[in-house]
User: Fold these one by one.
Assistant:
Number 1:
Amino acid sequence: MPPPPALTAECLANPAADRQAPYGERRSAILDAPALAQAERELTSWQGYAVTPLHSLPALAQALGVAAVHYKDEGSRFGLGSFKALGGAYAVARLLCRELGARLARPLSTQDLRTPELRALCAGITVTCATDGNHGRSVAWGAQLLGCRCVIYIHATVSEGRKAAIARYGAEVVRTPGNYDDAVRQADADARLHGRFVISDTSYPGYMDVPRDVMQGYQLMVQEAAQQLAQRPTHLFVQAGVGGLAAAVCGYFWERDGSERPVFVVVEPDRADCLAQSAKAGRLTAITGDLDTLMAGLACGEVSHLAWEILEHGTDGFCVINDQAAVEAMRLLARPLGNDPVIVAGESAVAGVAAAVAACQSDATRQALGLTADSRLLFFGSEAATDPQLYAQLVGESAEAVAARAAAQAQAVP
């Protein structure tokens, strides 16, 4: 069996990490078990809901010198190709229930929104957001599902394939100059001008409720993975853009396991490492410039304030990787070691895998993160090939061909 590719990552311990700190009231006000239970009741009632697969990769585990590797594959989530379906669409539903409930002076559920009377009221509401692709697709899908209008902002380097995938759900798509954070500001300014409702996955002072809903939706994925595993993981390597996904994962295990929670590592592209830079500086620090990375879903320069409330002290370490490491990890999952399952994974999905491979190949990093022969690693594969043309270019094989090999492999298993 050939070894995994040799990868490198810049890894640093979080100087503010505090494994003994209680989860506490401030973090519980952002993410907690009752809020997750509410999201679970809602999302599991939606047509098309299904628990996504958790893949075991024993050959990769052996090659990395650890006990187990598991990959939560979000590529099939609600047919949207990414975990974002759990966040943006759920936040749209929550926003419509709050807004129309206030107008009608009664509490509403998503089921209420599907009545002719309320669907007509939904048609008078417009939701909006900025996106690198996946979040906007989820918001557009949620708007189409619930009958409201939708305007999505994409920045200069978002591919035409991702633009088309959003427009497919009936949204108006507006391309803006600059980077993701510039698009966020434009979406917010236009929303105030035109009376739209922003459904953002990033939070900032004065804007907290909707991003909290987004993160609460994400936690359903984490709960599924925890229930699918026979043993709790010892290490989590989770990719971050603004930090919402990472905070959802960290918060889930911190709330339940306290100081016994898994070692938590945040992974970012080297051209958009706002969380790592914030940790180094000891305060929120923005990254400027074009943030030009292949990992489009992680190309964010400003940290979500809500996410930082959890990640500032809950993160044990940060790993920063380059684009080539992500490409090698995509290829590794498409053409896996031994009899490991074939997986279609997009550029942003594999950051955790790439960082873990690099960490396991460095004696110093293994020691710093406590990676041993008994370690159990968990990754969240946040997207499939959400840009099929780019996927084929990077992997050297189409997503359809890789998926066909995966299906044939699954059928061959007795």
Number 2:
Amino acid sequence: MRIARWTRDGADTSDGFVIGDRVVPFPDGLTVSDVLARGLGEAHAHFAAVQEADGAALADVRLLAPLVPASIRDFVAFEEHVEGVSASVDGKSEVVPEWYQAPTFYFTNPHTVLGPDEVLRPPVSARLDFELEVAAVVGGPGGANLTADDAAGVIFGYTIMNDWSARDLQSREMKVRLGPAKGKDFGTSLGPWIVTADELAPYLDDDGFLAVRAEVLVNDARIGHDLVSNMGWPFPELIAYASRNSRVVPGDVLGSGTTGNGGCLAELWGRRGELTPPPLTDGDTVRMVVEGIGELVGPVGAAVAVPELPAARVRSRARSRQERVAQ
């Protein structure tokens, strides 16, 4: 099953299934959030109820991001990506020993999610980049302190994720041992739909990794390609780790992290010691294709200038900490 959200002629948003070359709304006015919360089994029942309905032609609607995420966690699960991009962002090509100990992630902004073909309006950046990822979407009850087996049961489906990145902003922020923040939170593209976990089960290898091919093209020139099964941990282990002393809930999105072998420009910059291929700019188009899921296109628009903020006020460490006496 393919789960999607769409609009037609700028009218209200509809939520439902993509069935062949048509879109069909969920029964009873249900939303994607409702269906995720009720789990994959009930989604099959809803599909059976509407699969013969006429719906509307897929070509006549504009697809939106396939869900409004409850949260977005983005992992860094590809060793090859870490080794290559660290030289570009941090100035030293390495995979630190701590990477192997646990699947590290950061939270990004669920309020700047973009859908298929939606134009990115990036910050002013000299090193604008993409990141080719697959994301798992949580459904059903979610849970806390899950085992990997339990976590596999809360994967409702998968979608393509482009974690847009301003590498110059990211590099500055991470020198303070925090972030990425403004280097990332301006846009994350998801889509074109959610493919349910049962549809992709045939691609799982014997160790539980999702063995699908993924590639990324800029202006129709292929930049990178990889197998998603080259992750250091399979998706259930990522979700289990995210749930430690915490919770995962329906609508949570968990990105795989950037694939290796050119899954982003920064990896190639780090390996080559130069900005080749060049950073993204206004007018470029990034197209990501993942086997079993589909294609996600992201056009790049003009950068958005923002008001300047002053630098930190330098303080004397020896200054008095006494409260100021009122005059």
Number 3:
Amino acid sequence: MNTRMRRAAVAVAAGAMAVSLAACGSAKEAGDKTKESGAAKGDAIKVGLLLPENQTARYEKFDKPLIEKKIAELTGGKAEVVYANAKQDATTQNSQVDTMITNKVNVLIIDAVDAKAIAGSVKKAKEAGIPVVAYDRLAEGPIDAYTSFDNEEVGKVQGKALLEALGDKAKDGQIVMMNGSVTDPNAKLFKQGAHSVLDGKVNIGKEYDTVEWKPENANTNMAGAISALGKDKIVGVYSANDGMAGGIITALKAGGLNPLPPVTGQDAELAGVQRIVAGEQFMSVYKPYAPEAEAAAKMAVALAKGEKPAGTSTVDSGTAKAVPSVLIPVVSLTKNNIKDTVVKDGVYTVDEICTDKYAAACTTLGLK
């Protein structure tokens, strides 16, 4: 190679290197910008908290204040929690994510109304450099962490309790299955867990997926089941949660079922616990909200600070592999362990449960 050609080659190589370095610099700057938008310095972070609905008492009474309390503890009270409730409307929740992005929150905790419908908003947040913690329901999209209960185990616990209540009468008649909303991925897992226990051991006369988890829809479905099957044929009801159990029991009473067949539930709502005390509802699934809320808060604060969230396991969210997760165990709540669960954990006081209407039943159970 002559001198002129060698100089030309060196010049081309140098130019290429300069372009490469410039490109690396641009990529680094873009990465830094994304990191900065999602990670605040110190404890003065802004956390967006989006909960799905207020039909179920747990969200406003437990989840919200518990998450806020833990975030305050973790940040010395310097963090700001920006809250919104979608009131069971997926479109509203997507708009709320847009607002959170505009407000430049540092991290989002999302309990999705509709796991599929939220995917696009999760992607938008990710593109804005805002990490997302999927709370209670496994949202689709590029989430960064997840915490919930072992939801298939919830269904198994409910199914086992119903079999226990039915005893030798399990196949004497038919049961009605009242599952949750198809838009909730947890409802699918509850159903799977329940079926894995109940199939082959009971006769399922009617089964429903209840629109929006609404008690009034469960009430309508139950009335239809009584009409179709006959009141004397129904020996038990699988209800996926307490709210629906209330609507179901109202329908059972209106349909003339006496004594009431065993009915399951979930969430240990106050009204549900009181129905258990009164003998109207057989059981509920007690889910300790504090450890779930604390796990979400810890993950959110870590992500907001640009740190890796800690999980006790991992889940595959479909678009994000090996997402750090924390799954909280659940407890079957019956009249025999009210004092050792919701009362002991400070969820409700005896006075809250044992109002005048339930005083005699509480005395019988030793709730004082």
Number 4:
Amino acid sequence: MAALIPLTNTPRDYAWGTIDGVARTLGWAPTGGPEAELWLGAHPLSPSEPAASAEATGWHDLAAWEQRSGAALPYLLKLLSAASPLSLQAHPTPSQAAEGFAREEAAGIPLTARERNYKDPNAKPELIVAVDDGFEALCGFRPIDDTLALIDALAQASDDPAPLQVWRDAAAAGVRDGFVWLLSGAPEVDAAVVAATATAAAHPDDFELIARLAGEYPGDPGILVAQTLNHVTLAAGESLWLPAGNIHAYLRGTGVELMGPSDNVLRGGLTPKHVDRDELQKVLDFTPGPASHLKPVAVSENVVSYRPASVPSGAGVDFELLLVTGDAAVTTGSAAIALAVEGTFTLSTDGADAAAARGAIVFVDAPAAVRVTGAGRLFIATGV
């Protein structure tokens, strides 16, 4: 029989977070500082805690619950609120994560070391669903012709087009070659960044993203890498799917993110954190194409599922994110976590009930048939 246990956690105050971003979304008391992410799961860096005393549950956080129960959550759920761009990044496949973790363990690199790439042996496929209109992101390499057209437009508007022509020549050689050149550290790259930034400053309406990124990360080659990626803006309820190898960055907005229970991130720019060019290139998928939207699958009248396994690149991914907007019956495939971002709901299992008004988090501690009554927006993370 599944229990329904209210959870809580402390928002993480990364510098790119929106001031009071989590509080604003959930109706919580504001902290007055950046609230970038609220982690809901058992990840040891920030495991969720029971809202009541630990004596009432027998465990003090979900990491301890995993140890006590012998079960493991196949996901990490996050509420993310970005006021400025996150780093350009990608995540490894399961085999790459296992190999990289073992290699760095054997090399004796501390888990807390700045140069550590693999914090655990797990993959980190992820999806994100926009909570509000206007969630903005970069997702996957776009076709080369689109990149070349942008460089041509920059060169035409620039007072110093020669460095941009060097970038164009590198980009024209192919997605991989162009990317490798941008992260090479060559002085020609720095010159191209300067030329592109100056052009965008003179023509901010035409090259708004370059101007914005340059304001956040002046001189960073990631400013140009970003121009080789698909730039998308999501409406509320729209979603992106970020499989292993997909290069991406969230630029601004609030979303609910569901991912594998991992902290393995390979970065490629727009960050003061460690950038390992060689390791990143090993995991990247350089295939150009459109951004990888994940269409929700209707489950019932008031329930849709954002299900990675519904697309070929999500084969084998064992979690999904349900969005419940009204009365519904939901069957979870694992212990589940429900997060209410709007409205008022009641969750019921055989023998247990829990209220879930806006801002509530409820842990369903075993696979269960859950009856949901109410209206609004209730996200439920579960295994499949």
